[in-house]
Amino acid sequence: MPLAESDGPAAAALAGWRRLDRRMLVLHPIQELIRAIPWLVALLIAGGSSGHGSLWGLAGVAVVIFAGGLRWFTTTYRIAPEQVQVRRGLIRRQTLTVLRDRVRTVDVTANALHRLLGLARVTIGTGRSDRKDDGGVKLDGLSREECAWVRQELLHHLPTRPAGSPYRQSEAPSDSATEVELALWDPRWILYGPLTLSGLITLAAVVGFGYRIASEANINPARVGPVHDLLGSLGAASPALLIVVLSVAAMVLIGLASAGGYVLAFWNYRLTRQSTGTLHISRGLLTTRAVTLDERRLRGVELSEPLLLRAAHGARCIAIATGLRVGRGAEVGGSMLVPPAPRKLAETVAATILGDMETVTGPLAPHGPMARRRRYTRLLLLGSAALVALVAGWQVGPLPAWPWQVVLVLLFASPLLAADRYRSLGHAVVGGRLVTRWGSLVRRRCILASDGIIGWNIHQSFFQRRVGLVTLTATTAAGRQGYRIQDITLAEAVRVAESARPGLLSVFVSSGPAIAKS
């Protein structure tokens, strides 16, 4: 296993233990205080009923500061020729061990507090993408120089420094002479931020946090003067005007939040390829982040085009690599190679990394008339069923009229969506890579190396069986761990599988396929 917990003694050959930077004695208590603000507010309110709220608050602050400072005394780490070990805990002592040949990424992050103190946090990605709660091995509280050494030791195979050896500026690792710049931040990209609608999540998080604070403090926002006056004005407006005002306000807020989030996440973005066989992505405004990805773990790339971003000729480029958790979000998991930017740039970066432009922009095989018909029938049948249910609920009385009216409008627009979904379908096997494309609201073109495919899955639903179509899924240990080719014939599925990985599927379907049915 790449990650293990052990309480036994280390081998004598391992390097000595190192401590985190002493400046974390300031950093961690501040971080813990910020996280504990809602609970400290609740503690003040609870203690206020007995007249000792300030004492309760001070006691809570003291406990939080002590717990934060205790981490420096109980956390040590060491980097040996074959292992990385982190020892932590006071009552429950743990030693976390990572084999160095299992290290997939090294992620260096520094928020505003880190940068103020000259510190950073190193996250060593281990590739355990099957565990949603696994964020890698974290070393929170290293100097910037030590972070650079750790990254070089793990990914660039520098000699391991002995524990306690002094850091010399003249020995600072540098890649400036051995790197090629693939993409660089352009302020005009901020216009692509609102087209991703990421501000919707940001706005929801801010509203949720504010509501939690107000609830803990027993504050009713509707009774606050300006909010009360605004709600009164809106209540006096007509329903049509109210819908228009709320819609415009929501669009403006989401757009501003999306643009702001884009700047915070991708300011000063830079993507470079280093001669040591790694890709290095650095970005961020308040919180800076630098992710180093070993190209030996790269199995392909994905071009993602949400509907609004596609309309503006934009796209994102995402790495398909082992150890990067695409399911948690490409930005969070560290697999984002190019943020929302011009499509031409994303395609150029993908082609440069893969060394082949044809797989990125070349034509794909269509999926035929039966696949086209399924795009229309599925939308029309689902829309019609929803419309009938909503109209019935409206006639009975519990539901208002507007839900079925909205569905009716969407039902008339569904043929346009169905046509776009069919145009998005396509597949090919080019240059030892499997290329598949699907989706409309988010169109994805995934390019997967054939040697990264570890199996095939042929799935056939009840309705697919009626028209003689199947869905072929290439399984892999990287990225989403499964990439589909939807609604193709069984003969075409076998042909594609044989072209990509000869002999892996044909032996199982030569005497009749065993197809999963649902």
Write up this protein.
This protein is an alpha+beta fold and 518 residues long. Among the domains are: 21-74, no CATH class; 188-265, no CATH class; 368-517, Pleckstrin-homology domain (PH domain)/Phosphotyrosine-binding domain (PTB) (PH-domain like), CATH 2.30.29. Helices cover 42% and strands 26% of the residues. It has 17 helices and 22 strands. A seven-stranded antiparallel beta sheet has the order 8-7-6-12-11-10-9, sandwiched between helices. Strands 15-14-13-18-17-16 form a six-stranded antiparallel beta sheet, with helices on both faces. α1 packs across α3 (53-74) and α13 runs antiparallel to α14. Residues 1-14 and 129-133 have low confidence and may be disordered.
Keywords:
518 residues; alpha+beta; PH-domain like; seven-stranded antiparallel sheet; six-stranded antiparallel sheet; 17 helices; disordered N terminus
Quickly describe the structure.
With 518 residues, the protein is of the alpha+beta class.
List the helices and strands and how they pair.
Layout: E1 3-6, E2 18-19, H1 24-35, H2 37-48, H3 53-74, E3 76-79, E4 83-88, E5 94-99, E6 105-110, H4 112-117, E7 119-125, E8 137-143, H5 144-155, E9 179-184, H6 199-216, H7 225-236, H8 239-266, E10 270-274, E11 278-283, E12 288-294, E13 298-306, H9 307-311, E14 314-321, H10 330-333, E15 336-342, H11 343-354, H12 358-361, H13 368-396, H14 402-424, E16 426-430, E17 433-438, E18 442-449, E19 453-460, H15 462-467, E20 470-476, E21 482-488, H16 490-500, H17 506-509, E22 516-517
